[in-house]
Inverse folding.
């Protein structure tokens, strides 16, 4: 069973969204397709199973959270 998910995350401004995306994009090669539109990061994820989707989402959101905290401090 294939699983597909689209996640949209709003940030305070487009510059922060760009910085966050740039800081995590190397970890997501082949797993997550992302783009920034205005102040939003839009991620599309496709996996071979629901458990794999859960793991991918968990990792992706954890990376976003850490990157957001770092960007906010700077």
């Amino acid at each position: 069973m294939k699983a597909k998910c689209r996640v949209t995350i709003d940030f305070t401004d487009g510059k922060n969204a760009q910085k966050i995306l740039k800081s995590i994009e190397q970890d997501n090669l082949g797993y997550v397709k992302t783009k920034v539109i205005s102040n939003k990061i839009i991620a599309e994820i496709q996996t071979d199973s629901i458990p794999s989707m859960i793991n991918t989402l968990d990792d992706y959101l954890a990376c976003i959270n850490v990157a957001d905290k770092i960007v906010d401090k700077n």
About this structure: The chain has one domain: 3-73. The radius of gyration is 12 Å. Residues 50-73 form the longest helix (24 residues). The longest strand covers residues 3-10.
